[in-house]
Amino acid sequence: MAGSSDDKGFDRHRSIALGVITAAHGIKGAVKVKPFTETPENLSAYGPLHDEVGQRYQVRIERRMKDQLICRLEGVADRNAAEAMRKTWLYIDRNQLPEDHEHFYQVDLIGAEVQDEHGQTVGIAAGFFDFGGGEMIEVTQHDGNRVMLPFAPSLRQVIDAETATIRLKIDPVWLETSAKKPVDEPS
């Protein structure tokens, strides 16, 4: 595999996902990357990235194409190598990122208490997603059910990574779960 080995390996508490390789692009080893950075071009701004097994990659952005970046990874020189990289998540060590007290990293909010606008606890933040229609937060409710809630800036009231609290405007309909239908037994 391309890249150089990182003997530290992967540590999910130390690593922040900056993007994921979605496909090969062309025949000379370029890849398409969906960036998770606020500014897509910051994908390569902080130094080499690594995958979950610790392989390190120097990333050079060639251009932006819609919501993805066309990139070159050092050591990936042909389409076959690029195709083998598909679905590879690219991470950076947290200490390589700038300290910014006005912003937060979503990973810092995993496990945070999620509350409605009245301060009532809804559940615990389990993950963050963006399927193309806007950011979503996955919340594990007290009964074990998981629900996806919009995480749009207009719905965020309080986000405090230090106290692990997220307060959102939540429509009660979003918290309703469909009743599970019993499986019919064969007769």
Task: Describe the overall structure.
The protein has 187 residues and is mainly beta. A hairpin with a 4-residue loop joins strand 10 and strand 11 (146-150). Mean pLDDT is 85; it is low at 1-7 and 178-183. The strands form 3 sheets. Strands 11-10-9-8-13-12 form a 6-stranded mixed β-sheet, with no helix packed on it. The protein has one helix at residues 79-84, and strands spanning 15-25, 30-35, 49-50, 56-57, 59-65, 68-73, 89-93, 113-115, 121-130, 135-141, 146-150, 156-160, 165-168. It is built from 1 helix and 13 strands; from the N terminus they run E-E-E-E-E-E-H-E-E-E-E-E-E-E. The protein has 2 domains: 15-95, RimM (Elongation Factor Tu (Ef-tu), domain 3); 106-175, SH3 type barrels (Roll), CATH 2.30.30. It is elongated, with a radius of gyration of 20 Å. Helix content is 3%, strand content 39%.
